[in-house]
Amino acid sequence: MSQRYLRRFTDSRSAADRRTAEAGAAQHGARGQRRRWSAWTLALAVLIAGCATSGKPQSALDPAGPVAASEDALWDLVFWIAVVVFVIVQGLILLAVFRYRDRGSGDIPRQVAGNTRLEVFWTIVPAVILIAIAIPTVRTIFEVARDPGDQALDVRVVGKQYWWEFEYLGDEGQGVVTANQLHIPTDRPIALDMQSLSATQPDPGMDEDPQVGQPVSDGVIHSFWVPRLAGKQDVVPGHTRRMMIQADEPGTYPGQCAEFCGLSHARMRFQVIAHEPAEFEQWLTEQAQPAAAASGGLAAEGQELFQSQQCITCHAIDGYEAAGGAAAEVRIGPSLTHFASRTTFAGGIFDVDDPEQLAAWLRDPQAVKPGAQMPNLGLSPEQVEALSAYLYSLE
Ligand code: CUA
């Protein structure tokens, strides 16, 4: 409450009223000040939280490869131009506010209408700034989109609900299919051919929905984003989108779906794992091996359940052959050929190494990942144990 208002307010009232009003104003002021301090403290905490210097596995400002680095360089340029513009504009506003403020003389300032020189100036300057930003922007767009051709490792990326499938293409790829963990060699461009498929489409090579015979386009839009390796790329049903990623150093680079795609969008994570080239070759060769049949015990029991509980109707396991000669080939769910060689499952959100998490998933997938395509098969604890044993044998 301002002093002037307080004076006017109290003049017309008795001394008792005045005392009450003053006490109220003081109390009011103290409360307002406390609230202001709380707001400032909160704002400062939020600001400081954004300033972490380490542990930023998903910071686009900490690029780990040439694609991300060129995007980051463009961002830096635009950021500093914006900082200069901000400082100049805000500085002029503050100058005008303080220098030409009403000093109580009551004079009306000189009235001005139009200033051709100024108007030309503030039209040309922003145009020049926009051109200065457009040139490196267009150059970066072309740079990032440049296709290295044969030099690249080709991988098909398929967005499903809610997980990613990775298929290594060409002779070099040896037909390896995996899920949620994209292994790549360092210092080599990786060309990703990205598609989004519906749950009913078993194989990316198939153009028609096997159930209705219609062209498949009923997947949903996902967005593939590994912040330290490249910008986001939307994956759109009915289209194949191509993007490049590349990592300079071996390591694990977390990524996530960046486009709302349904109930478990937030649980659609993945990791890009970069290896030295020789190590990558070794990994690929191991992944190309068919799964070994369970040699007995609980794992063999689990292998039988794999067929009798319909797991086989959705999950491929290369080399699997059931008693009746049935093969597990369908890729509605992730290929499980080398399940135990992965460290995460179900959209990169659970640890393979944690038997409790695997058991919870097998018991009731919907309870731990709402909206997932895997149904609750109503497995008994013994069946869960046997299936776990089988999955852990798939190294
Ligand atoms: Cu897939 Cu969000």
The 3D shape can be described as elongated
Number of distinct helices: 10
Amount of beta strand: 5-15%
| Rg estimate, integer Å | 31 Å
Mean pLDDT value? 86
Structural class: alpha+beta
| Head-to-tail CA distance between termini | 73 Å
- Percent helix, as a range, is 40-55%
Number of distinct beta strands = 12
Sheet with the most strands: spatial strand order: 3-2-1-5-8
Helix-strand sequence:
HHHHEEHEEEEEEEEHHEEHHH
Question: What summary fits the major beta sheet?
Answer: 5 strands, mixed
Regions with little confidence, pLDDT below 50 for 5+ residues: 5-13
Bound molecules: dinuclear copper ion
What does this structure look like?
This protein has 395 residues and is an alpha+beta fold. The chain has helices spanning 3-11, 15-49, 66-99, 116-145, 170-173, 277-288, 297-308, 355-363, 365-368, 381-393; strands at 153-160, 163-168, 177-179, 181-185, 190-196, 222-225, 233-235, 241-245, 251-257, 269-275, 344-345, 350-351. Strand 1 (153-160) and strand 2 form a beta hairpin. It is built from 10 helices and 12 strands. Dinuclear copper ion binds next to loops.
Spell out the key features of this protein.
binds dinuclear copper ion; 5-stranded mixed β-sheet; 395 residues; alpha+beta
